[in-house]
Amino acid sequence: MVEAGRIQRGEDVQRHLRDVQALLARHRAVEELVRGQEMPRHAEVETLLHRQHVAELRKTLDVMHAADIAYILEALPPEERLFVWDLVKAERDGEILLEVSDAVRETLIESMDPNELVAAAGALDADEIADIAPDLPTEVIEDLFRSLEPEERTQLRAALSYPEDSAGALMDFDMVSVREDVTLEVVLRYLRRFDELPDHTDQIFVVDREEHLRGALPLNTLLVSDPETEVSAVMSTEVVRFQPGDKAETAAQAFERYDLVSAPVVDTQNRVLGRVTVDAVMDFIREESESELLAQAGLREEEDIFASVWDSLKNRWSWLAINLVTAFIASRVIGAFESSIEKLVALAALMPIVAGIGGNSGNQTITLIVRAMALGQMQATHARQLFRKELGVALVNGVVWGGLLGLIAWWLYASAPLGAVMMLAMVLNLLLAATMGVGIPLARTRLGGDPAVGSSVMITAVTDSGGFFIFLGLATLFQKMGWLAG
Hints:
Blueprint: H1 2-35, H2 42-62, H3 66-74, H4 78-87, H5 93-99, H6 102-110, H7 114-122, H8 126-132, H9 138-147, H10 150-161, H11 167-170, E1 177-178, H12 184-191, E2 203-207, E3 213-218, H13 219-224, H14 231-234, H15 248-258, E4 262-266, E5 272-277, H16 278-296, H17 309-336, H18 338-343, H19 346-374, H20 383-413, H21 416-446, H22 455-480
Parallel strand pairs: 1-2
Antiparallel strand pairs: 2-3, 4-5
Helix pairs in contact: 1-2, 3-5, 7-9, 8-10, 15-16, 17-22, 19-20, 19-21, 19-22, 20-21, 21-22
């Protein structure tokens, strides 16, 4: 049922996108038609049609969820994006800015004046303001601070003080807490005073008069227990908790491991500061996954698909430059064996196979290692064991698949020595790929870098150059020894 619901929502988003695109296309077509014809009261007709299309678009946007509007804005070219953005109700600006990607948020913020930005951000909670604060102009942040209540101002300062990859940055200040010496009936009466509970409230934090965390009261326990029972008798004292400085990755792993919906964040004196909820953790995991995927491809940051040529160039040039250097090295490796290739043209046809399979194998290894590092499952002390395991896998794969390719090369070119070269080159290049697949992320981590950044670019460069060198080097050696005829 959950999966069916998810599919239905996905279809709804696509339908909304098609509706908006159709309305925009109709609006452009009618405008061009009216402008291209001579008719009385031309301006009035154009204005009337414009108003009709704008009203229809507004009506469509008004019934959509903020996340769906964000999705649509990301899928539209800049001119259409800003046209649709202007039609969104002002009171929804803040929640939509939260949902869009960083790259698109920048374009939307650039189109808004400071007063609009202050109003949009002011409608958000302190932790939500902190999420978009890095993209807001300094003067807007200053005006925003002045417009907030003292308590919200304090919360915003706290939220902005935490590193981006910390549990504090994921923290939500909206929560419910009670004392341990009251009855469940008192707690129920207290909860009825709320218009609604904070999102993802699955437990109520139990604190003392100084706000020290004493335990947690799950809502399901509250609902099924005797109302005359005291909170202290039914609360859970084994509570997963975090401190603001804890790594967000650690929090995400704990949520996955213990199936958490919410968890308290406490200071060094165990006073409750806020809570982390599953929606914040899911957003963090999604953003980290996207960042890792982009980093492996050598992209610096998320890119608006409709970004300017210059912005896209700035995002992509660095690793392309590195790739150009590595490609040049690979070409020089091939150039060094031109005479061998001239004597046996079959080498030119077979060498990309060795390099390609080595690259795929290396990417498999590096993906597993980076994932293990992200999950905290790999320590430096495990390096030797991992090297042995991956080399073993590479050796077996090399013998099996290299042997198969060697037989095929022997059959195609009627040359047993060429088949032997193929098999040996495959074994050696897979061993090289395994070594680098473990070594590259370990080395980047030891140097303080992100093990995922540019990993696929580097492993491909090594296995290409190494594969060409190994294969052509073995072929040249066999030629010189008279085992491989030209």
